[in-house]
Amino acid sequence: FRIMAGKVKWVTDIEKSVLINNFEKRGWIQVAENEDWNFYWMSVQTIRNVFSVETGYRLSDDQIVNHFPNHYELTRKDLMVKNIKRYRKELEKEGSPLAEKDENGKYIYLDFVPVTFMLPADYNLFVEEFRKNPSSTWIMKPCGKAQGKGIFLINKLSQIKKWSRDSKTSSFVCQSSKEAYVISLYINNPLLIGGKKFDLRLYVLVSTYRPLRCYMYKLGFCRFCTVKYTPSTSELDNMFVHLTNVAIQKHGDDYNHIHGGKWTVSNLRLYLESTRGKEVTNKLFDEIHWIIVQSLKAVAPVMNNDKHCFECYGYDIIIDDKLKPWLIEVNASPSLTSSTANDRILKYNLINDTLNIAVPNGEIPDCKWNKSPPKEVLGNYEVLYDEEMAQSDGPDRDLRSRSGQSTGVKGNRARDSGKPVLTTWK
Amino acid sequence: VSLHNPEIKLESLKEDIKDFLKTSGWEKKLQNAVYSELNVFPSPCHPAAPPEHMKEPLAYMRKAQGSWEKRILKSLNSMCTELSIPLAQKRPASEQKELLNKWNEMGTDEPDLSLFRPVYAPKDFLEVLMNLRNPNYENGEQPSFRNHLGLIQVPLKVKDIVELKEDFSELGLNIGQLGIDDSAQVPPEFFENEHIHVGQKVLAEQDSAAAQQYVRQGCPTALRADLWALILNISNQPEDILYYEQLKSNVIQHDLLVDSLIYKDVKLTASNDDYYFVFEDYLYQVLLCFSRDTSVLEHFTYSSATPPKSYIQGKLGMEEYAVFYPPNVNYNSFMLSVAPLCFLYHEPSKLYQIFREMYVRFFFRLHSISSHPSGIVSLCLLFETLLQTHLPQLFYHLREIGAQPLRISFKWMVRAFSGYLATDQLLLLWDRILGYNSLEILAVLAAAVFAFRAVNLMEVTSLAAAEAVLADLSTLKVMPLLQIFLFATVT
């Protein structure tokens, strides 16, 4: 494992101080895109160009980028759902115990995405589902947008008439993927704290998909709505009640710039343990880790596991009032904007720890390395799942959950879902 | 089990009743209630002592508290006159309806609070305490190392480290603690599992005294809410819920000046706090009810304070229209002692009762002038004495640069560290307050924090710089600090 002379040359097209400060503190040298670079922190638009067939970009062994070429298999709402559905069906076909269903036909272990349909493609299927439960609320989300843009809630079929495939008046030119929507069953019984709705933002670093190796950042946070939650239909239009995106909440009257409506995950843990008990809290966090790993396993077969790539995802999870976690979406480019001082510190440390894992020793990378960093450099990351470890039946690295301090990652499990043994986190 | 039994004989009636009390659980409840009262009752004193002496034996302390209360009331009254707002008035019906509707989200209200100012700041209170003097004590000497270099100049008896070690013996190095021995590096078999097991047994037995002993080593998070309720003897009976609802309707019906002060303080403090902002709405509910809770007056038989009383506008002198103001009208500190409880109790009436009990047992002592060992005066003196005795160089240095240590630590103690420590650490600290039935641990922790940061503090040259070194306590782990200070520091 060589030590190459010279400093890492970096490029970015995202002008954020939390990034740039981290590069500079490592003594890395900024270069332009057309020069020889070792590390490029790209926006998702740029990654499309880098790996597109036309440009014929070829990365050399000493070059690393921060996205996988087809990350959208996980980070586009429609593709994520498609991949998870496919994964479940495959498991079912091979008779895996993970794909077990209950008496209502729901997956016991793999039901973690709210019922979702693509529009307009699955419009009729959606209508069938809607009619089973006509008082339900559904959430419409444009596939290609972020930050809560274009999202709205519906509780009547008439509100989405224009996505109907048979509609003669449908003037949709949404053949382009930008205009495609997903519609999901809205979780109208979210767990409330202090009467307010919140969601969880967790950071997950993937260094390789095959074998799957992923890390969970211990310092995730909850994002609270500033307005009291109500499922009342009269407030369906009030996005301040329903959408937790900071980009939306920021514009509310009560948005606070000191804490930014954010709570640490350890606060959440403390609150839940104190009011609900330790077992159910541990179970909740175990389930959260489970669904993250399952979502990654679902896309692993279709991911271009390019050795020049790593990726830090922002997972959005909602907990309902039965303490069941739901995966809402995965972001390829989690916001690096800081809304508060604490935020800035958190994101700075996040990038720092990410770089320590992705670019070992801060030196010029060599893509042939085994992507197995020593424990000491993990910083605030914990190993979430290491497929290689799991398959070699290595000693159980049991990172027990501790109240108030960590997210309780259960570490490596010595069983893999490929084997005919029921994988549980306990 | 019942006493409705025709076989019961007169001869064995006494025994039968005793057995019945045992098996029905009433014996335990009675024991808990008595134990609870014992915690609050002052120790018996001379039969000829007048009632004020039971409250507070030192005349000069009583006088000082009286003047302080007068000053607060005067300040309140002048605010009322300035703003042309009565201290108390009945709400018009439409306003009542509106308030009832938004009872659960008062945080979104935006009343104009710019004209209201807090009645006093912690440093005003500190000034009053600094000026306390015992008229019977000849204090002509200049402060020196032979007497006292700190800000508090009254000769109250405070404990030294030897006595503290004895009192807090369960915090010793050989004894398992939550907050130390449950960290990720320690296998749970060593202490944590067994401790949790014992805690569950204590709860099953519903024994207040055992619970109080148990929490000295800390509460497991999942058991804390129930353990505290057991120690404080709160069971949230239907009559308690009803009482809370009555208070709530008092709030709806009458508007008090202090309501605006409460709003303002909560908005300024909790709404901006990283941990507590989520519970803003609960804080309004609890504090607005509390300020109308005349049952709190009962506790004043144990305190030297006499709360200012006012009457609903137009009903001067009519007792049923009286409202009282708790001695600490600066809700800043108040509110911070409610907020951590929101992590444990989400049912409003239970949250309310726990807070009220914590207030009448402990927190009121932080806001009134008395000679009680857990009173703020004693705590300040204890802090200064510990520091002067064990870190004399540091104490002297800080004093020389105009940074009297108490000026920095006062705000921590007066708020029982709420708003300064991370919540999980704060709860571990409050476990010990309940376990030892004393606030002295606040002074010990304050001294321990200074000891911990001593190296940096020795290098500062101004009060502002000293404040900066001690500005952020959110990363501190309280139990190791306490243990090291009490049991591992060479004296």
Descriptive tags:
heterodimer, A: 426 residues, alpha+beta, D-amino Acid Aminotransferase, Chain A, domain 1, 8-stranded antiparallel β-sheet, 4-stranded parallel β-sheet, 11 helices, 26% helix, 19% strand, disordered C terminus, B: 491 residues, mainly alpha, two-stranded antiparallel sheet, 23 helices, 2% strand, globular, tubulin-glutamic acid ligase activity (chain A)
**E-strand count of chain A:** 16
Beta-strand content bin of chain A: 15-25%
Radius of gyration of chain B: 24 Å
Mean pLDDT of chain B: 84
State the oligomer. Answer: heterodimer
Given the helix and strand composition of chain B, which structural class is it?
mainly alpha
The succession of helices and strands of chain A, N to C, reads EHEEHEHHEHEEEEEEEHHEHHEEHEH
CATH T-level fold name of the domain at 191-393 in chain A: D-amino Acid Aminotransferase, Chain A, domain 1
Low-confidence stretches of chain A: 167-178, 394-426
- Spatial strand sequence of the major β-sheet of chain B: 1-2
Q: Helix and strand succession of chain B?
A: HHHHEHHHHHHHEHHEEHHHHHHHHHH
Structural class of chain A: alpha+beta
Tally of alpha and pi helices of chain A:
11
CATH architecture heading of the domain at 191-393 in chain A = 2-Layer Sandwich
**Low-pLDDT regions of chain B:** none
Largest interface: A-B, 35 and 33 residues
User: Could you state the CATH homologous superfamily of the domain at 191-393 in chain A?
Assistant: ATP-grasp fold, B domain
